[in-house]
Amino acid sequence: MASFSSLAATSSSTSTPSFTLPTKTSPGTASLSFPRARESLKSRARMVTVRAEAVDTTISPRVSALRPSKTMAITDQATALRQAGVPVIGLAAGEPDFDTPAVIAEAGMNAIRDGATRYTPNAGTLELRKAICKKLEEENGLSYTPDQVLVSNGAKQCITQAVLAVCSPGDEVLIPAPYWVSYPEMARLAGATPVILPTSISDNYLLRPESLASVINENSRILILCSPSNPTGSVYPKELLEEIAAIVRKHPRLLVLSDEIYEHIIYQPAKHTSFASLPGMWERTLTVNGFSKAFAMTGWRLGYLAAPKHFVAACGKIQSQYTSGASSISQKAGLAALNLGYAGGEAVSTMVKAFQERRDYLVRSFRELPGVKISEPQGAFYLFIDFSSYYGSEVEGFGTIKDSESLCLFLLEKAQVALVPGDAFGDDKGVRISYAAAMSTLQAAMGKIKEAMALLKPPVAV
């Protein structure tokens, strides 16, 4: 049985240099006899082969230790199957199905027409950083100046640079699970050790303060919090964040990276609280946000970091040698996004309403399946569903459902629906479903999933 891990593997091939033998010589040039020409070319070919064999093909241990993103691998596999004529429904990617709002897209096109196509300052244009500061003040109660904001090519780059900037080999990065697939790999790339803190569906996948307190030591450098969460959709209430902050406050080395990229995709009565707004947390919080999710701007690649100046300056150093500033065109579009109004105005609220309707439909539908456990998400556009009661089921013509990966392979084969196994997020009991897809697509997928699951019977009483 193929594994999802193999989907990201790449193949390599070697080629033998080819040579065209001369058939005649040009006037005024020295000539070789045909046998001598052939021997000369053979000698050159042997030299090339020797050089190829002598090349050191080793890869950096840090890079070798990285695991490819399963979400990307599965999405690519679903795309390949569709191109081959297999009608696969992809619910793996975390990408809104909406178009970028027209006013934002128009701002990008105007940027091109107006010639705003040159390099910008490494940290981002001053007008965009000022607008971000205004947004953080009005929506999050956070006070920053433009030199405390760094604009990057997506929130993902912001997080990577933040981890690289503050972590050293031997440091630990504390990551509640289920987690976004990239957090542990970012820690490893920095030479730090990811320390996984399991959470429970009974706690809505929220980190318990006592669990955090039990693992902190002198090597603990960053705690990563994501609210609303990818992959669970859980939202941390302010009271729980205050308890976590009280523990963090006792450890001077411990910083908090607050990933708030899904901030505006939240369902009442849940409310978003920025960790840096809590007493004593501004000085030690690295706040990451961006435009990809709420504004349906994934392809524009635009995110930002807000933090004390010395942290931002360190991240800026990395960026200056890594990518330099973000796209000038994307920054003009981002400025238009921030001018849509509080929390993105009507354009974002329309998308959030659709996401909530889809969530409600899927929650109702999956609760009809025996043995399935669900923590109803309060934000983002994901369901993380516990299918572990089905592990151990035998399926004729397929084999045993052993874990989340084999379950997803089963659903890809039998239902032609692509989902992401929970082991990619640090919790093998679950499977992540993205409902950033049209309702008609979700209804079709749900029908296929129910038909496939009918072939299984939980091996344990539920």
TrEMBL record:
One GO MF annotation is: pyridoxal phosphate binding
Q: Which UniProt keywords apply?
A: Aminotransferase, Pyridoxal phosphate, Transferase
Region annotation Disordered: residue ranges?
1-38
Q: Per its UniProt entry, which superkingdom is the organism in?
A: Eukaryota
Report the InterPro entries cross-referenced here: Aminotransferase_I/II_large, AspAT/PAT-like, NHTrfase_class1_PyrdxlP-BS, PyrdxlP-dep_Trfase, PyrdxlP-dep_Trfase_major, PyrdxlP-dep_Trfase_small
Protein family: Belongs to the class-I pyridoxal-phosphate-dependent aminotransferase family.
Name of this chain's protein? Bifunctional aspartate aminotransferase and glutamate/aspartate-prephenate aminotransferase
Q: Which organism is it from?
A: Sorghum bicolor (Sorghum)
